[in-house]
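Help wanted!
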Amino acid sequence: MYVWLKSYRGEGEKDIGGRSLVKPVKVGLLGLGTVGTGVVRIVEGNQEDLSSQVGSPIVIEKIAVKNTEKDRVIAVDRAKLTEDPWEVIRHPDIDVIVEVMGGIDQTKEYILEALERGKHIVTANKDLMALHGSEILAKAQEKQCDVFYEASVAGGIPIIRTLIEGFSSDRITRIMGIVNGTTNFILTKMSQEGASYEEVLAEAQALGYAETDPTSDVEGLDAARKMAILGTLGFRTNVELKDVTVKGITSVTREDITYAKRLGYEMKLLGIADRRDDEITISVQPTMVRQNHPIASVNGVFNAVYVHGEAVGETMFYGAGAGELPTATSVVADIVAVIKNLKLGVNGLKAIVPYKQKRLQSDEHIMSKNFILLHVDDKAGVLAQITQIFAEYEVSLASVVQQPNEHNPDAEIIIVTHNASKASMDKVLKHFESLAVIRRIKSVYRVEG
Amino acid sequence: MYVWLKSYRGEGEKDIGGRSLVKPVKVGLLGLGTVGTGVVRIVEGNQEDLSSQVGSPIVIEKIAVKNTEKDRVIAVDRAKLTEDPWEVIRHPDIDVIVEVMGGIDQTKEYILEALERGKHIVTANKDLMALHGSEILAKAQEKQCDVFYEASVAGGIPIIRTLIEGFSSDRITRIMGIVNGTTNFILTKMSQEGASYEEVLAEAQALGYAETDPTSDVEGLDAARKMAILGTLGFRTNVELKDVTVKGITSVTREDITYAKRLGYEMKLLGIADRRDDEITISVQPTMVRQNHPIASVNGVFNAVYVHGEAVGETMFYGAGAGELPTATSVVADIVAVIKNLKLGVNGLKAIVPYKQKRLQSDEHIMSKNFILLHVDDKAGVLAQITQIFAEYEVSLASVVQQPNEHNPDAEIIIVTHNASKASMDKVLKHFESLAVIRRIKSVYRVEG
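Answered by r_m:
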C-alpha cells in the first residue's frame, strides 16, 4: 500500500515530464469545532513547513460535521464536508483519521472501525483514551496502526512524548499536574482577587473558560481522566479511571485560600500520581502547594506537569492546556509523526504496551501531609484532647495554631501534619466526628512541598 | 546485519530447546567521567525496564578511558576498559557508540570513523555538535546512521525531542533559555544574598559547580554553543556559533542586580533566539527579566528553556541542566531510541536536515528593551541633553530616573527604553561616549518581559 518509502529516501518517482510525483497524504477529520478548526488552520497555514518535514503534501480530504450548512469561522470547501462520519472512516484514500469530535461510545465505534480498515488515528479525546485506551491500543497493535493522543492531556505541552521517549530511560516516581485550565483559572482568581467560588465560576462561564454545566471540570473528573493517561504512561502499567480517587473544588472557600496563603501555600487542583516500591496511587484533589514549588506559580488557564524521576530528578513542563491552536499544535505534530512512520513503513511498531502489573498502594501506604481546620468549643483542654487523638493514631504534627474565630464563639484550630498515612488520617477524622468538643471539621486538604 | 526486526514484531527465533534467542545490543562507551558513570548506573540499574521497552538486553561492551588503573566510583569489569578509543570504535559487535569524553577535533575524528563503520552515535558533546554538527549529521545521513544528542543541551530536559517532534507542526518564533547552570547559580546567589561576583564564583568553584578555569561558562561561550544547537532545531536552519553574539556575566555587579530588583527584574544569563519575518537573531547576554515571567524564577543550577510558537504560544521546560544522572537520563533515552530504530531498520531515516535558508537580522531589525545606567555631572540640563539624544535616534523611553549617587559627587541616571533597534542603541551609546557631561556609561543590559 505505501510506495513512499523510496521517495522518502530521496529517490522520488518522476512523471514523464521529469516532475516529481509525490502523492499527498490524505487525512480525514471527525469534528470541526474549536480544535478541528485549529487543525485546518495549521495544516493549511504551515503546509510548506509540514511537507518539507514529511516529504509530501498533507491534504485534509474529508470532514465530518454535525451540520454541513452551518457558517464556519474558516473557509472550508463545502464538498469536503459530510454529516456522515462513516463516509470519512470508509474513504479509501484516507490514511489518517483525526478525531476531534469528542464523545465516548459512538466515537469508540468509529475509531475501532477505522483501525479495522488499517487507518491510523490521531485523537484529542481524553475521555475515550482514559476509558477505552487499552482496548483501542490493542486493536491498533493487532492492525499495526498508530494511535497518537498527545492533545488529550495538557493541550500544547508535549507531555505524552516526554513520558514515552524523553524519560524512557528513567523510573518515574511522581507526576503532579495542573491539567485542568478551568479550575486553575477559578482558583487563581479566588487567590488573587479574594473572590468567592461562585463569583469566579460565573466569570469563567462568561469568558468561555467554563462550560454551562461545569461539573466535569469542577468535580475533578476531567483531571482524573488525564491523570489516568499520564499514570499509565509514566508507570507503564494500566491505570484505569476507577483507580483515581477524585475530589473537586466546589467546596473550596475564600477562607481556605486565605489560610493557605497565610501559611505560605497556594491552593491548586492537583493530579498526583505517586510510585513507591512499585506500588502506585493516583488522585486528584485541591491541594495546598508550598509557594516556592515550581508548580505553585502556574496561574490562570495554563497547565503544567511536574515530573520526578529517580535519575532525572525534578522537571516541569508548562504551557497552554487548551484552546484552538495550542491543542491543534499537538494534533498536527501527531499527524506528522504518523506520516513519518507511514513513509518508513513502521506504523504501530513502536507502541508502548503497559508491561507492569498494577499494584495500588493500600490506605496504609498512601502518604501525605495534611491541613485540617476545626471549629471547636472555646474552652480549656480541647487542644490537648485533639492533639492526643493525633498521637493515638501516630500522626505527627508540623504545626498547630489555636485562635478565636472572628465570626462566632467557637475557637479555630489549624493543624498541618507531617507525612501521615491515609488510613491513619481517616481514623483521626472519624474519631473527630464523635468528639463533642469539635463543632465542625471545617476543611481538610492535602499539602505538598 | 539486523535480524531483530522479526523478533521485535513478536516472532523471535527460538533455540533448539525452545528458548527465545534474543541477541543483546552492544554499546561502546567513550569516556567514564561523571556522565559516563551515570550511563553505566542507569543501563545496569534499569536494565529490566530498558529491555522490556526495546525487546533485548543492553550491554555496555567496551569503555575507553584515560587510565584503566584508576579507581572508579562504580564497579566496572576491568576487562571492558581500554585506553584506546579505536578499540571501541572498531569493535565488530558494537552497534552504538556513546560519546561522553568531550573534546572537539580528536573526538570528531572518532565519531566520523564510527559512522563510517555504520555505528550509531549518542553524544552529550555540545561543543562538538555546535561546531561540527552539520558535518557529522551529513555523514550520518550518508551512512544511514542515527546521531542523537539530547544530553548536549539542558541536561535532563528533553528539549531537543520537544523541538524536533513536539513542535514539528508549529513555527517557533522565540527560544529563550537559561542553559548554563554555573552562571545561573552565580547570579541567583548574587541576587539572593547580595554577594559579589568574585565571592560567589569562589563558592561555586568550591562546590564543584564551576571549573577551576570558568571562562567557558562565565563568558557565555557554553550557553552560546547550546543556543546554536537550539536555534538550528527551532528555526530549521543551520545556525553556527559565529552567528551567536555573546556577552558573559563577569562584569555584572551587585549594584546592577540591586537596580534590577528595584525595577522588578531578575538578572539572568539568557540565550535568546528570535525569528521575525523569517529573519533570525541569536544572542547570549545577561538580561533583566521581569519577575513575573516564568523564566525569572528559575534559580540555582536549574536550567529552563522557554519556547514561543505561533500556534502553541508560551511554553516552558524546566529541570536539572547538568549532573551525573540527569544528563545520563537523556543519554540513555537516546540509546533506547537508537535501539528501537535498529529493531525497525529505520536508523538515520528520520534525521531533520535544516532546510531553510539562513537570514540573520540586521542591526536595524534586532529589537530589544534596554536598561542603561549612567554616571553624569550633577548639574542642570544634563537630563535634557541625554533624553534629546535618545529622541534623535528614535529610541523611546519607558522610564527615566535621576538621583544622586551615594558614593561620589556624580548623579546617576537610570533609563529603561521601549523596544529599540540594536543599530539605534549603538548610535546612542557611541554618541554618549563623546558627551562631556557623561562621566561613565556604567551598565547596559537587555530587558525582557
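OP: Thanks! One thing I noticed: The CA atoms of residues 69 and 78 of chain A lie 8 Å apart.
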